[in-house]
Amino acid sequence: MKNKYIVKLNSEQKDYKVTKKILLIGDPNVGKTSFLKRYLNDEYDNIYSPTIGTNIKSSYVSCENNIYKLNFWDVSGQDKYRNNIQSYYKNIDGIILMYDVNDMDTFVNIKYWMSEINKYSSGKIIVSIVGNKFDDLTSEYEVDDILGINIASKFNCKYNKISIKNNINVDNVIYDMIFDIVHNK
To answer: Over the stretch 38-58, which tens digit does the pLDDT of each residue have?
Structure first.
C-alpha cells in the first residue's frame, strides 16, 4: 500500500524539503474546515461556523525520507467570497473539492468548481473530489457513491468518501494526494 511510506509529523520541522500548497474548496457547510480540524488536531465539532475569507493552516509529513510542509488554504464557499478565490488557484499543488453526500446541490456544483479550476489554475494539479458525511453505513444518501465515482472519472480526478465525524478516510485523502504530488501523477 502506497500510504505506508507517508507519516504525519507532530511537531514543526525546520528541515523540510519543500512546501506544498493544497486548496480546500466547495460549497458552504460541506466540511472543509472540519476536515482540517480532524486532520490537523483530531478534533470534531458538530457546530457549523462559516469560514470568513480564507484560513491557512500548516502541517508536516514525511514521504520517502523527505519532509514536506503542507500549507492548507481553507477557502470560504460563500458566494460573496468567490471572486477572491481566483488568485488562490495560482501555484498550487493539490485541490480537495468537497461536497456533502446529503445535499445534491453541493454535488451538482462540482461542475462549477471544476470550471473555476480549469479557468484559473495552471500546470499539473492533483484534484481529489471528496464526498463527506458518509457517517452511517446503513443509511441512504442523496448523492450515491457511484455518482461521486463517475464525476471524478469524468474530470480525471481522484475520488474519496469520508466521514469527518467518525474519522473515516480523512488522513488517506491527504496521504493519497501527497503521494501523487510527489510522484507527479
So the answer is: 999 998 887 766 666 677 899
- Give the count of alpha carbons within 13 A of 167, CB side only: 9
| Nearest in space to 100 (alpha carbons), one of 176, 175, 26 | 26
For the chain, what percent of residues have pLDDT higher than 90?
A: 58
Distance linking the first and last C-alpha atoms of the chain: 16
Q: Structural domain boundaries of the chain?
A: 2-182
Three cell numbers written together for 169: 478516510
User: Strand, coil or helix: what is 16?
Assistant: coil
Q: Please give the grid coordinates belonging to residue 65.
A: 525520507
Q: Which fold has domain 2-182?
A: Rossmann fold (3.40.50)
Helix (H) or strand (E) holding 45: none
Q: What's 91's DSSP letter? A: T
